[in-house]
Amino acid sequence: MSRVKLLDKEFELSIPEEKLLKAVDQVAEQMNVELADKNPLMVCVLNGSFMFASDLMKRLNFPCEISFVKLSSYAGTGSTGQVKELIGLNENLEGRTVVLLEDIVDTGLTIINTVDQVKQMGPEDVKVATMLFKPDACKRDVKLDYVGMEIPNDFIVGYGLDYDGYGRNLKDIYTVVE
Ligand SMILES: O=P(O)(O)OC[C@H]1O[C@H](OP(=O)(O)OP(=O)(O)O)[C@H](O)[C@@H]1O
Ligand SMILES: Nc1nc2[nH]cnc2c(=O)[nH]1
């Protein structure tokens, strides 16, 4: 399938599954070396990260746990802009290494906010793993410990990412056709 239509937009194939899975292999290899003795808690930031988290977890060969969090759609406003509340992280994080699993870091706002909130729960260390990173969109100073691949600043769907709720089930990634 080289093109798909979702709602009112057309998308064309840009990253095939094979390439995505090679990137996941590389992230897993790096984690298998660096996190082997850390007993980390992997934290999947829903919704978009479910597919990356699933593929990644199958490739990890050290003891680890996984938990799932969501960011509330409620948005309070503060001096730093929108702050979304993290829901579902009920584990005791004190002394733990936490690895946040994101599907994409775009502007960087979501991950910065998420890292801040997790840090307030007293973990020993917080690391960030993202399947995709848009360097040209991210103007903030975000520390990314694991990056699957860097991509251009275009709107994409597939491999967990949606357009208005649709397209998350696509195994490849597609880029919007303007
Ligand atoms: O770097 P940013 O510009 O903040 O964008 C990245 C965020 O956008 C997407 O989440 P979204 O809010 O669309 O929720 P979803 O995962 O439920 O689709 C994605 O899953 C990241 O969490
Ligand atoms: N579906 C989708 N969600 C995003 N969230 C941040 N960037 C993107 C993107 O390119 N596509």
Word description of this protein:
With 178 residues, the chain is α/β, with parallel strands linked by helices. It has a single domain (18-151), classed as Rossmann fold (3-Layer(aba) Sandwich). 21% of the residues lie in helices and 37% in strands. It has 3 helices and 10 strands. It has helices spanning 17-34, 50-57, 109-119; strands at 3-6, 9-15, 41-45, 65-78, 81-87, 97-105, 125-133, 146-150, 156-157, 173-176. It has a 6-stranded mixed beta sheet with strand order 5-4-3-6-7-8. Strand 3, helix 2 and strand 4 form a beta-alpha-beta unit. Helix 1 (17-34) crosses helix 2 (50-57). The longest helix is centred in the N-terminal third of the chain and has 18 residues, at 17-34. It is globular. The two termini are 18 Å apart. Residues 75-79 have low confidence and may be disordered. 1-O-pyrophosphono-5-O-phosphono-alpha-D-ribofuranose (PRP) binds at residues 45, 47-48, 102-110, 162. InterPro entries: HGPRT, Hxn_phspho_trans, PRTase-like, PRTase_dom.
